[in-house]
Amino acid sequence: MGTEVWWSSLAAADRDLLGLLDAGERARVESLERPADRGRSLISAAMLRTAVAAHLGIAPADVVVDRTCAECGGPHGRPRIVSHGTPAPSVSVSHSGLLAVVVLVPRGPVGVDVQRLDDLDDPAAGRAWATREALFKAGEPARGDVAVSELRPPLPGYVAVVVAPAGQEGAPRVRHWPRPIPA
Fold first, then answer.
1. pLDDT digit string (tens) for 132-171?
2. At residue 93, what are phi and psi to the nearest 5 degrees?
3. CB within 8 A of 19, min separation 6: which ones?
4. 17-55 b/e with 16+ CB inside 10 Å = b?
5. Can you give the C-alpha Rg of the chain in angstroms?
6. Distance in Å from the first CA to the final CA of the chain
7. Each residue of 98-125: pLDDT tens digit?
8. pLDDT for the residue numbered 52
9. Cβ of 179: how many Cβ atoms within 10 Å?
């Protein structure tokens, strides 16, 4: 497996997806004040579980996601997949506006960021913004250890960047979940 990129949109938000999440993820979704924030959080968590489940050949409910913050121990840190036996992929998640994205790599540092350009003070700086965010999510690895690549978001008005281990073969495999996003 090389890099896998999974896209979804806020239109996919459905309360039935709560059944895929664990208690902590459900509590996080339900604690958010704005409906759009709840939708993005729900889609991101469900898509992460679905993508990892497809990679590992297990049910989404069987995916164990650890979000322990490395600094304070709270449940809001970078997602890490806990696997018993099978090597777990490295993952990163981002969402902005109508879009959510999940990226998986077999191992190593990974970070992704998607940004709606209208949300930035300077839309022309969107790629630089997304690059900084993706590098941060990847743990700020040395530039020679990773490749920084722009992704093509499925909607206009967005920019997205992925940071993945250098030397990955081939273009990223792109999937749309649960169905293609109409442009």
1. 999 999 998 877 789 999 999 999 999 999 999 998 777 8
2. -135, 145
3. 61
4. beebbeeebbebbeeeeeeeebbbbbbbbbbbbbbbbbb
5. 15
6. 28
7. 999 999 999 999 999 999 999 999 999 9
8. 96
9. 10
Task: Kindly report the pTM of this predicted structure.
Answer: 0.94
Residue with tokens 């993952």: 91
> CB within 8 A of 183, min separation 6: which ones?
154, 155, 156
For 8, 25, 152, 183, the CA distances from 45, given in Å and listed in that order, are 11, 7, 21, 23
- The residues facing 92 across adjacent strands are 103
C-alpha pair distances (Å), 165 with each of 91, 95, 127? 12, 22, 19
Report the alpha-carbon distance of residue 146 to residue 144 in Å, rounded.
6
Does 183 score more than 80 pLDDT?
no
Strand partners for 165: 146
Report which of 79, 81, 103 is spatially closest to residue 3, judged by C-alpha positions. Answer: 103
Amino acid at 143: R
**Token duo for residue 35:** 């409906």
Looking only at the bridges linking them, the beta strands covering 111-116 and 80-82 are: unpaired
CATH code of the domain made up of 4-176: 3.90.470.20
